[in-house]
């Protein structure tokens, strides 16, 4: 990706995230209040993720889980008993992702790019795979679209953690590398449209 591509991409992110926050900011605020009463915790969920150049940042989401003691969680969260009914709606409708417009505006994320991963994945990339860390992670992207039913896919595996590590993760790396190596601003527009439709 050329320097000029990164500049255009950042300007686009600032403009669209600003407009997006003006349009849906009220939805984020109302949803966060509902999530606060629904989960008895903060309406926003912050989690450390690996960003550009391996920098750790906190990704923002609407909280969709309550505290349930004694739960042994796995990669698959679709049947996680901590997810509330309202939280399930946030996830299915992708409303829980809206606060990430703040991450985009602040410069931690981009609208389009590899999804930000927890430590133990992106920060462990080696060789030419580390090209993925040269750009900001995105709210959506080609790998996110390809694995749009990832939670269902993992829920149907005998060992979701192994399947994620040995099948899904390598495929995501392959897709994200191709995205960066063949970057086009107009492809970003296409991915945004595909995400909505």
TrEMBL record:
InterPro entries found in the cross-reference section: Bact_transf
Transmembrane segments: 12-35
Domain annotation Bacterial sugar transferase: ranges: 9-196
Keyword terms: Membrane, Transferase, Transmembrane, Transmembrane helix
GO MF annotations, alphabetized: phosphotransferase activity, for other substituted phosphate groups
Family the entry assigns: Belongs to the bacterial sugar transferase family.
Protein name: Lipopolysaccharide/colanic/teichoic acid biosynthesis glycosyltransferase
